[in-house]
Specification:
This protein is mainly alpha-helical and about 170 residues long. The chain contains 8 helices and 2 strands.
């Protein structure tokens, strides 16, 4: 999600990602736990595009890692529905039942139950966020971009990987 946000951001975009991966001395890994381990052991001072959950899990185990919160970036931050997205078929056998369920799900009671089940905070501001990781709770003073929107979903991982591969190849020339 974060790489798509950076890729799509008008002040960052593909040019920024290309420069990042061609001008920096970087090490890549497809294993986020390995990246957290390298960070915790001090092999690297920073790791990009890690899952907040992986970092939080490492912190809970006492590893010396920390989050960089969204309020530190002037560009804002991405936010997406993740497991909170709701989809309905366009020809449901009982469309009124689906509407009734979605109305309940979006109610205060429904969102409290959803938070309990997903262990993620709802975007409703009238329910408690106690017990959630601070980085998962949207801050009212931050500019968020809906990275779950279709325009972000259309950016494929392969296009970002290709851009990164080309940038790394350029750096090795």
């Amino acid at each position: 999600m974060v790489s798509r946000y950076v890729y799509k951001h008008p002040q960052l975009g593909p040019k920024y990602l290309s420069r990042l991966f061609s001008e920096m001395d970087i090490t890549l890994s497809s294993d986020p736990r390995q990246m957290v381990d390298w960070l915790a052991k001090g092999r690297f001072q920073i790791a990009l595009f890690l899952s907040s959950t992986d970092v939080a899990s490492a912190q809970e185990k006492g590893l010396p890692v920390a989050h960089v919160f969204a309020d530190q970036f002037r560009e804002g931050a991405p936010i997406a529905p993740g497991p909170g997205a709701v989809s309905m078929t366009d020809q449901a056998p009982h469309p009124n039942a689906a509407i009734l369920f979605v109305n309940w799900l979006l109610s205060k009671e429904g969102q409290i139950k959803w938070q309990e089940a997903q262990r993620l905070p709802s975007l409703r501001i009238d329910i408690s966020k106690k017990g959630f990781y601070p980085f998962d709770i949207p801050n009212p003073g931050i500019k968020y971009i809906n990275a779950g929107a279709e325009e972000y979903a259309r950016i494929t991982r392969s296009s970002i990987r290709k851009l990164i591969s080309n940038a790394i190849a350029k750096a090795r020339q």
